[in-house]
Amino acid sequence: MMKRDECLQVLSRHYTDQVVVPAYQAAFEWMVICPSDLTYLTTGAMGQASSHALGLALARPDKAVWVLDGDGSLLMNLGSLVTIASVAPENFHHFLCHNGVYEANGSHPIPGQDIVDFPGLARSAGYPHCHRFDDLDDFRSRIGDVLGLDGPVFIELIVEQGAVYPQDYVQLHSAERRARFHAAFNPPA
Question: Looking at the predicted structure, is the pLDDT value of residue 109 above 90?
């Protein structure tokens, strides 16, 4: 099993100017690991990260969009898989941090934590590319190729909590941060 923050550190080495939509704990980690005005924060909208990311991908088909989803979050909005696959945005990479718990809500187990096949669900919904990683070296060596695939692409990361990151709710919910995202996402013509 991999540490989530170590996976995000690997992913950050491939970051250029993608729009990143991290959910819950991944958001706090991503804000520290790879700070960017193009990070769209959705904490407080459990289950909606993939839907928000889809809207951003459709609004800016010229920009790659990465969603850093959680397993509990995705379970609350499985219908988004079908919608994303049917619209088929080529700029969409859907990372799922699968740790088997609702980490943001006390680490209670998600339903079916040991049997649900998230890449199988994505494949059945119509995602053309689905991958699963549970080894950091394998993820590190293959992620560049996976990021080169046209989307939608689904990438399940089997993870556990790594280092503890600050729970910076002030930054997470600040109007200034939203304004910076808006300006970065919608540059003047």
Answer: no
User: Residue length, the chain?
Assistant: 189
Contact 93, 68 (CB under 8 A): no
Mean pLDDT in the chain? 90
Which residues partner with 154 through β-bridges?
94, 130
pTM listed for this prediction: 0.93
CATH topology of domain 2-185: Rossmann fold (3.40.50)
**Dist CA 146 CA 149 (whole Å):** 5
Q: What is the DSSP letter of 37?
A: T
Rg (CA), the chain: 15
The number of helices, as runs of H, and strands, as runs of E, in the chain is 9, 8
- Residue 103 to residues 6, 8, 30, 74: CA-CA distances in angstroms? 17, 17, 16, 13
Give me the pLDDT at residue 158, please.
Answer: 94
Q: What are 66's strand-pairing partners?
A: 20, 93
The full 3-state SS of 109-145, as one line of letters, equals: ECCCCCCCCHHHHHHHHCCCEEEEECCHHHHHHHHHH
Per-domain residue ranges of the chain: 2-185
Q: Which of 95, 112, 116, 117 is nearest to 26 (CA)?
A: 95
pLDDT above 70: percentage of residues in the chain: 90
